[in-house]
Specification:
The chain is of the alpha+beta class. It contains nine helices and eight strands. It has a four-stranded antiparallel sheet.
Length: 319
Amino acid sequence: MRLLKLIPDNTNIGFVRLRKWAFGLTALLTIAAAVLVGVRGLNFGVDFKGGVMIEAHFQTPPGENTLRSDIDRLHVGEASLSTFGNANTYSIRLPLPAATDEGATNRLVKSVQGALAAKYPGVIFNRAETVSGKVSDELIRNGLLAVFLAVTGIAVFSWIRYEWQFGVSTFVAIVHDVLVTLGFFALFRFDFDLNIVAAVLTVIGYSINDKIVIDDRIRENMRKYRQMDMRALIDLSVNETLPRTVMTSLTILIALTSLLIFGGPVLRGFTAAMMLGVVVGTYSSIYVSSSLLISLGLAPKLTEQKGKGGPSSRAERVG
């Protein structure tokens, strides 16, 4: 029985020759994502903002202005509304009631749900969540710290495990992956909650796994082909690992597509972040991280190590 091969064994794609275009696209995407996050901001969920969030699915969408007017008549505070996944589903955010007891919050939720159910028969309330402001501040701080430590730790590991050029290229590629994912959420206004932080950390883990495989093959080929031009060596290394990269990405995307279709609205944001992260991470592994090593001056150099059995190869900066 023949094994399925999506990438032929003799594949020889010139990835390095497109590196300037890839660097330009990467810079454009990174800047655009940073601007989106800075200008529009992230649509923080209740996990981060604090307050009460009610998700309501209507048979016929009432319109944002009409729904806001209905909620304002209840005198429960200024409501923040946004569609969630489709035009029929609304995410309704409300400030916490003045009273701090749990009963006051439950009464607030029941008051809003009862009023909407009376005016819009058939409305379905998918969920209702409550988070205090103090807890939300701690979650923001811990979430940002988790992402920062993950990216920094991975870059330091690559620096120690290989050479400093590998650490820098890995850091640049992962920052690009994270920023593009955040820009996606700023553009489409998906809820950014703890599930999305988990998705971002998972994307970082996937990206570094792919990058380490390619970096390890590059270092192996630098020892094997000591006189080969660095551009040709990187192309060879990426092409050798391409079947594994494509197959891994494809199988993950198939699983995520099933999760997106059947996972329900609660997992929609998480799945969208994961799917985007897989695509962006694969692109940065192939076109950005490896090609950036050339710009950083990585090159094989033959050296003699006396008393250790002859010549060996190591990575050094050119000139």
